[in-house]
Amino acid sequence: MATDSPIQVKHIDHVTLVVASVDASRDFYVGLLGMIEVPRPAFDFNGAWFQAGATLIHLIEQHERSGPAGFPVEVLLKSSRNHHFAFEVADATAAAEALKSRGIQLVDDAKPRPDGAVQVFLTDPDGHVVELCTSNPSAIPCH
């Protein structure tokens, strides 16, 4: 659908998360999910940037001028129907098995959506819910 708005968003450039420990988050996003750490400008606060396909994940380590790591009020129920962000992977079912074999607790195990895409949900070290999904070639893509 066309719009007359003078602003036309092209895509999500990055997602920023405030984290308690950049090292613990690096272990999760790079060590577990296989992202690549990329150069980050020399800000006056600790953080890291990771490449996730065309999107960057910007981490800011919690400090006196940042927001709190995770959520300011703990989300009582972590689920696939709450705040989350998603990464497309080659095989979400295989990803779920790999996570479980490493002792990673899942929020929701791999399961198909009604259109055939497969989703699995877990949390990062700060409690952010992360979805890993695989599209069904004949269905709506994960994104």
Task: Note down, in words, how this protein is organized.
The chain has 143 residues and is of the alpha/beta class. The chain folds into 2 domains: 57 residues, 2,3-Dihydroxybiphenyl 1,2-Dioxygenase, domain 1 (Roll), CATH 3.10.180; 74 residues, 2,3-Dihydroxybiphenyl 1,2-Dioxygenase, domain 1. Helix content is 15%, strand content 31%. The strands form 2 sheets. Strands 1-4-3-2 form a 4-stranded mixed beta sheet, covered by helices on one side. A 4-stranded mixed beta sheet has the order 5-8-7-6. The longest helix has 11 residues. The model has no long low-confidence stretch (mean pLDDT 86).
Mean pLDDT: 86
CATH class placement of the largest domain: Alpha Beta
Side by side, the strands of the main sheet go 1-4-3-2
Terminal-residue CA separation: 18 Å
> Secondary-structure element order, as H and E?
EHEEEEHEEE
By DSSP (H or I, 4+ residues per run), the number of helices equals: 2
Q: What spatial form do the alpha-carbon principal axes imply?
A: globular
* Fraction of residues in H or I helices: 10-25%
Which sheet architecture does the biggest sheet show?
Answer: 4 strands, mixed
